[in-house]
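Supplementary Text 2. Reproducibility record for the structural model of the 349-residue chain.

All settings were left at their defaults, and a single model was retained for analysis rather than an ensemble. We include the record here because the model underlies the residue-level annotations in Supplementary Table 4.
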Amino acid sequence: MENLNSQQLIIEQQKLDLQKQELEERNKQIWTMSETVYKEKKKTEEYLKEILEEKAKLEIQKKENEEQVKMLWEQSTSIHNEKERIEKLKTQVEYRHKEIIDSVHYAKKIQQAILPSQELVNDLLPDSFIFFNPKNIVSGDFFWVHRIDEHKVLYAAVDCTGHGVPGAFMSIMGYNLLEQIVVKNQLDQPALILNELTKSVIRSLKQTNELGSVKDGMDIALCKVDFQNHTLEYAGAHNSLYLIRNGNLTETKADRKSVGISASKSTEFSNHTMNLVKGDCLYIFSDGYADQKGGAENTKFFYQPFKDLLVEIHQQSMQEQKQKLESVISSWKGDRGQIDDMLIIGLRI
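Retained model, structure tokens:
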């Protein structure tokens, strides 16, 4: 440099100044870039922080989801196990139900075998019908017919306490007791038979007036018809007798007590005697028909409409009367359930 002349020094100085200017410009650019990088770094760090926070939230959510999935799986397993248990119970219940229904159907066969056959009814009560409609498969109502001699017949409509299986037990017992009383004791007067039936029921069921003692009993309408002399004897426990003659209905009321412990300390049953004429129609029955609910207001059928219906149809054949009684009560009942056993016995003299 010492050998350079002044002109060269100037040129070199200018070069240095230019380089310095370039360096300053580059430094300025670098600074600007550094500032931009710093800002971008700051943004990146903030974004990364947000990502980490979101990740942390997702981790928590994932854990909660895993716990919920675990809980749902446990619930699903529990529900599946409970479903299997219920299915097993259902199968067991259906099997037991079938066993019970089969047993009840078999009990129905036994009850039907005990009741008088249609042939016997036709033989002893030639111009008659029996409308017998149990509420369940077996019935607490039953009918009974017995020949005394060539011209005299006893017959009864009986309504035992309850219906279904309990009522059927009572009906079988009641049927056998009536047979024993009439055959062994040689009784044929309706009132005396009911008095003895009360004693037999009390003995058979070991009934007492103590609390908890069985209080089951029977309501019954019992008739003795002498077809030769055209006479009728009747005794009743709650169940009346209707006689229709020339379009007029006469009711012979029953004693207001049932056969059983409730009648044991009260007066004896009343025996009613009356003369009959050809064409008289006699009706005895349980309370199931009149008590059946139905109609627009879901009320009982009641006894007065029952009487009116009998008067309306009494001149028809006995089978036509039975069919009419069936159709009327079916229409009255509609789709409602039957509330009690039904039994009506009609006889034309």
